Structures are given as C-alpha cells and as structure tokens.
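Researcher: Let's continue the batch. This sequence belongs to Zinc ABC transporter ATP-binding protein, and it's 246 residues. Same format as the previous ones, please.
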Amino acid sequence: MTNSIINLEHITHKFNHSIALSDVSLEVKQGEFWALIGPNGSGKSTLLKIILGLLKPSQGTIELFGGPIDSFNQQQRIGYVSQKSNAFTTKFPATVLEVVKSGLTSKKGLFKRFNKEDEQRAIDALHVVKMADRKDESIGDLSGGQQQRVFIARALVSHPDLLIMDEPTVGIDRQNVESFYSMLSELNREYGIAILLVTHEIDVVTKLATHIACLNRSIHFHGVHADYEKMSETELSGWYGHPIRR
Ligand code: ADP
Ligand code: MG
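Model: Same format as before. Here are the structure tokens for Zinc ABC transporter ATP-binding protein:
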C-alpha cells in the first residue's frame, strides 16, 4: 500500500512545437495541501489536464495511486473543480441537490437513477461545505462563492482522496474568499482530503499550503512550506515572475 496519490516523473509537454512543460516531477501524497503557483502561461493548467487524463504528455510518466492512469474508479478518487464549472448552471436550471448528485454519474455521461443512499451522500457533502440548508434552491440563484462550494460538494460525493482546483476563487468577492479558504483548510485537516490548488493568492500559499510547487518556464521548484518561508522577497519575485510582497 502506497500513500502516493500522484507521481509525475520528468513530464514534458509540447503543443505543436512549443514547450508548455519541461521535465516536471512532482509527488503528491495522502493528506498534503499543495499550492501550485507560477506566472500565466507557465503550464499550470496543462499539468492539471495531464493529471486528470485529459492530455497525454509528450514525455514522462504519470502514476495515480501507484499505478498507470486507467480506470474510472481511479478518477472517482480524484475530485476536480474546474474554473468554469458554473458554465452549465446557466444552461440547465437545476437545484443545488441535483448538481451535487450529478457528481455520482460517470464522466462518460451515462445516466443514472438516484436512490435514497445517493441522496444522503449528496446531503452529507453539502453539510461539509455548509450549504445543506440551500439544497432545494436553484443553483443559478446563488452567488459565485456559494456556487463554488456546491461544485466542491459535487466533487466530494464520490469520497475522493484528492481535490484538484484551478484558480477556484476567480470571480468570488473578497469577503467570501477567506471563508472559502477556511473551508478548504477544514477539508484538508479534518477530513484528511489532499488538495492540489492552482492559485495566485500568496496569502493562501504561505498560510494554508503544506507544500508548494512553482512552474516558471525555466525553473521548477517544489518544496515544503519551511523552504518557502526562508526565501526573501527578491528570491520569490524572481521565482514567481513578478514582484511579491510578504
Ligand atoms: P497556465 O495555466 O499556467 O496559465 P497553461 O497550461 O494554460 O498555463 O499554458 C501553458 C502554455 O501552453 C502557454 O504558452 C499556452 O499558450 C500553451 N497552451 C495551452 N493550451 C494549449 C493548446 N490547447 N494548444 C496550444 N497551446 C496551448
Ligand atoms: Mg491556467
């Protein structure tokens, strides 16, 4: 039994002839909270797509839970909240509970009849993100931050070991960002769910993450929080690609 969730070794990815990722290695283990940072265009989203099996890397190997990417079962153990999850809320009017239950159907788009047990799982997931009292409301009536919580609940119904998010707070108003992050931290610490989060918010990186990975076109750094704390603003700015103030 391994506690490794993601193990990437020497991943390089090219789009036509341009290199989006060059020789990236990264291991995420059970219970860790990783912040993935780096300037725009440094390959963060590309790396997530490779982990999710949406892109096959040009070179390198990827293992999930100690084996090659293959099964639906493995995918169910990784919850993904995309930045544009809310695109479908405007197309299909649905209640909060329906959106959460849809997380139990396969990604191949198969339809499923839901039973009482599914319903209970969806309600439990809504309790975790503190949205159970809104279950019968239309998703479109909620604020951006509340919708994002519902999409996290949708990812949680399959009881994942890891939650992957790509800039989840874009479009959420400032005062709700803080409570959003305290909820993520609770998911990590109390429920033991590992997190891989792409973010530009340096506060999160320094306060919540236990591990940091930085993609910076030519430099790839990853380390534990302590290494990051020791770096000066100048070092960080060079590393991140723009001025960073602590
Ligand atoms: P980030 O998420 O860090 O902003 P991306 O992973 O989106 O970066 O992009 C990394 C690089 O790959 C960029 O130069 C981007 O233009 C390029 N890229 C991303 N997706 C594609 C694609 N589908 N086709 C061609 N180039 C792409
Ligand atoms: Mg991106």
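Researcher: Any comment?
Model: Residues 15, 20, 38, 40-46 surround adenosine-5'-diphosphate (ligand 1) (CB under 6 Å).
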